[in-house]
Specification:
294 residues; alpha/beta; 2 domains; two-stranded antiparallel sheet
Protein backbone atom coordinates (compact mmCIF):
# COMPACT_ATOMS: atom_id res chain seq x y z
CA UNK A 1 0.00 0.00 0.00
CA UNK A 2 2.88 2.36 0.71
CA UNK A 3 4.17 1.72 -2.81
CA UNK A 4 0.86 3.03 -4.10
CA UNK A 5 1.21 6.17 -2.04
CA UNK A 6 -1.33 5.00 0.52
CA UNK A 7 -0.85 4.56 4.23
CA UNK A 8 -0.83 1.06 5.70
CA UNK A 9 -4.04 -0.14 7.34
CA UNK A 10 -2.90 0.78 10.84
CA UNK A 11 -2.54 4.44 9.87
CA UNK A 12 -5.79 4.76 7.93
CA UNK A 13 -7.48 6.40 10.90
CA UNK A 14 -9.06 9.72 11.70
CA UNK A 15 -8.68 11.72 14.89
CA UNK A 16 -12.02 13.47 14.59
CA UNK A 17 -14.45 11.84 17.04
CA UNK A 18 -17.25 14.44 16.89
CA UNK A 19 -19.44 12.16 14.77
CA UNK A 20 -18.85 9.29 17.19
CA UNK A 21 -19.84 11.37 20.21
CA UNK A 22 -22.97 12.61 18.44
CA UNK A 23 -23.91 9.02 17.63
CA UNK A 24 -23.54 8.06 21.28
CA UNK A 25 -25.87 10.90 22.27
CA UNK A 26 -28.41 9.77 19.69
CA UNK A 27 -28.33 6.24 21.06
CA UNK A 28 -30.31 7.31 24.10
CA UNK A 29 -33.36 7.68 21.89
CA UNK A 30 -32.90 4.22 20.39
CA UNK A 31 -32.62 2.10 23.53
CA UNK A 32 -36.16 0.75 23.30
CA UNK A 33 -35.27 -1.14 20.14
CA UNK A 34 -33.00 -3.51 22.07
CA UNK A 35 -34.78 -6.23 24.00
CA UNK A 36 -31.79 -7.91 25.56
CA UNK A 37 -28.32 -7.07 26.75
CA UNK A 38 -24.62 -7.51 26.17
CA UNK A 39 -21.80 -8.10 28.62
CA UNK A 40 -19.81 -5.12 29.85
CA UNK A 41 -16.12 -5.03 29.07
CA UNK A 42 -15.26 -4.96 32.76
CA UNK A 43 -17.28 -8.05 33.68
CA UNK A 44 -17.14 -10.04 30.46
CA UNK A 45 -17.89 -13.70 31.00
CA UNK A 46 -19.26 -15.97 28.32
CA UNK A 47 -22.09 -17.49 30.32
CA UNK A 48 -25.70 -16.61 30.91
CA UNK A 49 -24.94 -15.97 34.59
CA UNK A 50 -22.71 -12.99 33.91
CA UNK A 51 -24.04 -9.48 34.57
CA UNK A 52 -25.22 -8.11 31.25
CA UNK A 53 -25.85 -4.68 29.85
CA UNK A 54 -27.66 -3.54 26.75
CA UNK A 55 -25.24 -1.05 25.23
CA UNK A 56 -24.83 0.18 28.78
CA UNK A 57 -28.50 -0.27 29.75
CA UNK A 58 -29.13 -3.05 32.23
CA UNK A 59 -32.21 -5.28 32.09
CA UNK A 60 -33.48 -7.26 35.04
CA UNK A 61 -36.21 -9.89 34.69
CA UNK A 62 -37.59 -8.14 31.61
CA UNK A 63 -38.55 -5.03 33.61
CA UNK A 64 -37.68 -1.67 32.09
CA UNK A 65 -35.28 0.40 34.18
CA UNK A 66 -36.17 3.97 35.04
CA UNK A 67 -34.94 6.62 32.56
CA UNK A 68 -32.49 8.18 35.03
CA UNK A 69 -30.74 4.85 35.54
CA UNK A 70 -30.65 4.21 31.80
CA UNK A 71 -29.09 7.61 31.15
CA UNK A 72 -26.47 7.00 33.85
CA UNK A 73 -25.52 3.63 32.43
CA UNK A 74 -25.52 4.99 28.89
CA UNK A 75 -23.10 7.69 30.02
CA UNK A 76 -20.85 4.98 31.45
CA UNK A 77 -20.94 3.13 28.13
CA UNK A 78 -20.01 6.31 26.25
CA UNK A 79 -17.01 6.81 28.54
CA UNK A 80 -15.82 3.28 27.84
CA UNK A 81 -16.19 3.80 24.11
CA UNK A 82 -14.44 7.18 24.31
CA UNK A 83 -11.55 5.46 26.06
CA UNK A 84 -11.32 2.78 23.37
CA UNK A 85 -10.97 5.46 20.70
CA UNK A 86 -8.79 7.85 22.70
CA UNK A 87 -6.34 5.12 23.72
CA UNK A 88 -6.36 3.78 20.14
CA UNK A 89 -7.38 0.34 21.28
CA UNK A 90 -9.84 0.62 18.42
CA UNK A 91 -8.72 2.51 15.30
CA UNK A 92 -11.17 4.70 13.39
CA UNK A 93 -11.77 4.44 9.64
CA UNK A 94 -14.07 6.43 7.43
CA UNK A 95 -16.14 4.33 4.99
CA UNK A 96 -13.83 5.40 2.16
CA UNK A 97 -10.73 4.39 4.12
CA UNK A 98 -12.38 1.07 4.94
CA UNK A 99 -12.99 0.54 1.23
CA UNK A 100 -9.32 1.19 0.45
CA UNK A 101 -8.22 -1.18 3.20
CA UNK A 102 -10.51 -3.96 1.96
CA UNK A 103 -9.45 -3.61 -1.67
CA UNK A 104 -5.72 -3.00 -1.28
CA UNK A 105 -4.85 -5.09 1.77
CA UNK A 106 -7.33 -7.92 1.12
CA UNK A 107 -8.96 -7.45 4.52
CA UNK A 108 -12.49 -8.58 5.20
CA UNK A 109 -15.21 -6.56 6.83
CA UNK A 110 -17.18 -7.89 9.79
CA UNK A 111 -20.82 -6.85 9.35
CA UNK A 112 -22.61 -6.92 12.73
CA UNK A 113 -25.99 -5.57 11.56
CA UNK A 114 -29.26 -7.44 12.11
CA UNK A 115 -30.64 -9.52 9.25
CA UNK A 116 -33.29 -6.92 8.37
CA UNK A 117 -30.54 -4.47 7.39
CA UNK A 118 -27.92 -6.87 6.04
CA UNK A 119 -30.24 -8.51 3.50
CA UNK A 120 -30.88 -5.16 1.81
CA UNK A 121 -27.25 -4.25 1.14
CA UNK A 122 -23.88 -5.68 2.12
CA UNK A 123 -20.22 -5.17 1.29
CA UNK A 124 -18.89 -7.63 -1.27
CA UNK A 125 -16.84 -10.32 0.45
CA UNK A 126 -17.87 -9.24 3.95
CA UNK A 127 -18.52 -11.65 6.81
CA UNK A 128 -21.91 -11.30 8.49
CA UNK A 129 -22.11 -12.07 12.22
CA UNK A 130 -24.82 -9.98 13.93
CA UNK A 131 -24.30 -8.78 17.47
CA UNK A 132 -28.04 -8.08 17.66
CA UNK A 133 -30.68 -9.75 15.53
CA UNK A 134 -34.45 -9.86 15.27
CA UNK A 135 -35.95 -11.46 18.37
CA UNK A 136 -37.84 -14.53 17.14
CA UNK A 137 -39.15 -15.63 20.54
CA UNK A 138 -42.89 -15.50 21.22
CA UNK A 139 -43.09 -15.82 25.00
CA UNK A 140 -45.15 -13.41 27.09
CA UNK A 141 -42.21 -11.15 27.95
CA UNK A 142 -41.02 -10.87 24.36
CA UNK A 143 -44.55 -10.25 23.08
CA UNK A 144 -44.90 -7.36 25.53
CA UNK A 145 -41.63 -5.84 24.34
CA UNK A 146 -42.64 -6.21 20.70
CA UNK A 147 -45.96 -4.50 21.32
CA UNK A 148 -44.22 -1.69 23.21
CA UNK A 149 -41.65 -1.29 20.44
CA UNK A 150 -44.41 -1.15 17.81
CA UNK A 151 -46.46 1.41 19.74
CA UNK A 152 -43.39 3.55 20.52
CA UNK A 153 -42.58 4.07 16.85
CA UNK A 154 -41.77 0.70 15.33
CA UNK A 155 -44.82 0.98 13.07
CA UNK A 156 -43.35 4.17 11.61
CA UNK A 157 -39.62 3.36 11.50
CA UNK A 158 -39.90 -0.37 10.82
CA UNK A 159 -37.22 -1.12 13.42
CA UNK A 160 -37.97 -4.55 14.94
CA UNK A 161 -37.34 -5.74 18.47
CA UNK A 162 -33.74 -6.93 18.63
CA UNK A 163 -31.97 -9.22 21.06
CA UNK A 164 -28.28 -9.75 21.78
CA UNK A 165 -26.74 -12.89 20.29
CA UNK A 166 -24.89 -14.56 23.16
CA UNK A 167 -22.94 -16.61 20.60
CA UNK A 168 -21.53 -13.47 18.97
CA UNK A 169 -17.98 -13.79 20.32
CA UNK A 170 -17.76 -17.53 19.74
CA UNK A 171 -19.06 -17.09 16.19
CA UNK A 172 -16.40 -14.46 15.49
CA UNK A 173 -13.69 -16.67 16.98
CA UNK A 174 -14.66 -19.44 14.55
CA UNK A 175 -14.02 -17.09 11.62
CA UNK A 176 -11.14 -14.88 12.76
CA UNK A 177 -7.98 -15.66 14.78
CA UNK A 178 -7.21 -13.18 17.56
CA UNK A 179 -4.37 -11.56 15.58
CA UNK A 180 -6.56 -10.78 12.54
CA UNK A 181 -7.15 -7.20 11.40
CA UNK A 182 -10.92 -6.92 11.85
CA UNK A 183 -12.82 -4.03 10.29
CA UNK A 184 -16.16 -3.80 12.12
CA UNK A 185 -19.20 -2.04 10.68
CA UNK A 186 -22.92 -1.69 11.29
CA UNK A 187 -25.55 0.63 9.82
CA UNK A 188 -24.96 3.79 11.87
CA UNK A 189 -21.78 3.00 13.80
CA UNK A 190 -23.26 2.35 17.25
CA UNK A 191 -23.71 -1.41 17.42
CA UNK A 192 -20.34 -1.89 15.73
CA UNK A 193 -18.63 0.14 18.45
CA UNK A 194 -20.35 -2.00 21.08
CA UNK A 195 -19.11 -5.03 19.14
CA UNK A 196 -15.56 -3.63 19.18
CA UNK A 197 -15.75 -3.35 22.96
CA UNK A 198 -16.77 -7.00 23.23
CA UNK A 199 -14.11 -8.14 20.77
CA UNK A 200 -11.36 -6.21 22.51
CA UNK A 201 -12.34 -7.79 25.82
CA UNK A 202 -12.22 -11.19 24.12
CA UNK A 203 -8.59 -10.64 23.09
CA UNK A 204 -8.77 -9.02 19.65
CA UNK A 205 -6.18 -6.25 19.38
CA UNK A 206 -6.31 -5.22 15.70
CA UNK A 207 -9.76 -3.66 15.58
CA UNK A 208 -10.96 -0.99 13.17
CA UNK A 209 -14.30 0.78 13.56
CA UNK A 210 -16.12 2.26 10.55
CA UNK A 211 -17.19 5.70 11.76
CA UNK A 212 -20.78 6.55 10.91
CA UNK A 213 -21.46 3.02 9.71
CA UNK A 214 -22.41 1.92 6.22
CA UNK A 215 -25.08 4.61 6.12
CA UNK A 216 -22.30 7.21 5.94
CA UNK A 217 -20.76 5.51 2.89
CA UNK A 218 -21.13 6.82 -0.62
CA UNK A 219 -21.80 4.22 -3.28
CA UNK A 220 -18.26 4.53 -4.63
CA UNK A 221 -16.65 3.99 -1.21
CA UNK A 222 -17.40 0.28 -0.90
CA UNK A 223 -18.30 -2.52 -3.31
CA UNK A 224 -21.96 -3.10 -2.62
CA UNK A 225 -24.10 -6.14 -3.21
CA UNK A 226 -27.84 -6.35 -2.58
CA UNK A 227 -31.02 -4.71 -3.89
CA UNK A 228 -30.76 -1.31 -2.15
CA UNK A 229 -28.16 1.40 -1.50
CA UNK A 230 -26.33 1.28 1.84
CA UNK A 231 -28.13 4.41 2.99
CA UNK A 232 -31.54 2.72 2.60
CA UNK A 233 -30.67 -0.50 4.44
CA UNK A 234 -31.65 0.88 7.84
CA UNK A 235 -35.05 2.35 6.98
CA UNK A 236 -38.45 0.69 6.94
CA UNK A 237 -42.04 0.87 8.09
CA UNK A 238 -44.58 3.44 6.98
CA UNK A 239 -41.90 6.14 6.78
CA UNK A 240 -40.07 4.19 4.07
CA UNK A 241 -43.28 3.44 2.18
CA UNK A 242 -44.16 7.14 2.07
CA UNK A 243 -40.60 8.27 1.34
CA UNK A 244 -40.44 10.44 4.46
CA UNK A 245 -37.04 9.35 5.75
CA UNK A 246 -34.03 11.66 5.64
CA UNK A 247 -32.26 9.26 3.30
CA UNK A 248 -35.13 9.24 0.81
CA UNK A 249 -35.51 13.01 0.94
CA UNK A 250 -31.83 13.39 0.11
CA UNK A 251 -32.26 10.97 -2.80
CA UNK A 252 -35.34 12.87 -4.00
CA UNK A 253 -33.34 16.11 -4.06
CA UNK A 254 -30.88 14.43 -6.44
CA UNK A 255 -33.33 12.43 -8.55
CA UNK A 256 -35.86 15.21 -9.11
CA UNK A 257 -39.62 15.12 -9.56
CA UNK A 258 -39.82 11.61 -10.97
CA UNK A 259 -38.70 10.18 -7.63
CA UNK A 260 -41.08 12.40 -5.65
CA UNK A 261 -44.11 11.56 -7.79
CA UNK A 262 -43.85 7.88 -6.85
CA UNK A 263 -44.11 8.59 -3.13
CA UNK A 264 -46.72 11.31 -3.62
CA UNK A 265 -48.86 8.73 -5.42
CA UNK A 266 -48.40 6.35 -2.50
CA UNK A 267 -49.51 9.03 -0.04
CA UNK A 268 -52.61 9.80 -2.11
CA UNK A 269 -53.35 6.10 -2.38
CA UNK A 270 -53.03 5.72 1.39
CA UNK A 271 -55.53 8.54 1.95
CA UNK A 272 -57.95 6.98 -0.55
CA UNK A 273 -57.72 3.60 1.17
CA UNK A 274 -58.26 5.18 4.60
CA UNK A 275 -61.21 7.16 3.24
CA UNK A 276 -62.68 4.02 1.69
CA UNK A 277 -62.35 2.12 4.95
CA UNK A 278 -64.05 4.96 6.83
CA UNK A 279 -66.96 5.08 4.38
CA UNK A 280 -67.24 1.29 4.49
CA UNK A 281 -67.35 1.32 8.30
CA UNK A 282 -70.07 3.98 8.27
CA UNK A 283 -72.15 2.00 5.78
CA UNK A 284 -71.73 -1.17 7.83
CA UNK A 285 -72.84 0.67 10.99
CA UNK A 286 -75.98 1.92 9.24
CA UNK A 287 -76.72 -1.56 7.93
CA UNK A 288 -76.51 -3.10 11.41
CA UNK A 289 -78.70 -0.33 12.83
CA UNK A 290 -81.36 -1.09 10.23
CA UNK A 291 -81.21 -4.78 11.09
CA UNK A 292 -81.76 -4.00 14.76
CA UNK A 293 -84.71 -1.72 14.01
CA UNK A 294 -86.61 -4.49 12.17
Amino acid sequence: MEALGLSPLQTLTTSNTKVYKEQCRNLRGRNNHFSSSIPTSQNLKYSNRAPYQRLGIEMRSGVEEDPAKQMKEMAAARKRWDALIREEKVKVLTPKEAGYAIQLSNKTLLDVRPSTEQKKAWVKGSTWIPIFDVDQKFDAGTASKKITNFMMGGWWSGIPTLSYDFQFISNVEKKFPKDTDVIVACQKGLRSLAACEQLYSAGYRNLFWVQGGLEAAEEEDLQREGPQPFKFAGIGGISEFLGWTDQQRAAAAKEGWGYRIVFSARLIGLFLVADGLLIGAQQAARYFQELRSH
